[in-house]
Amino acid sequence: MKTKLVSLLTLTALATSALAAPLTFDFKDPKGVNNAVFKLDAPLEAISGSANGVSGIVTFDPEKPGDTKGKITVDATTLHVPHPMMKDHLHGPMWMDVARNKEITFEAKALKNVKTTGDKTAADASGTLTIKGVAKEVTVPVTLTYLKGKLGQRVPKMEGDLLVIRAHFTIKRADYGINPGAPAEKVSDEIELTLAIAGAAPQK
Amino acid sequence: MKKALQAVASLVAVAAVGTWLATGAHRGWTKTSVQKMTLDEVTGIESPSYEKKFVAGVDFLGAGLLAAGGLAGISLFFRHQKKPD
Question: Taking the model in full, what pTM does it have?
Answer without folding.
Answer: 0.79
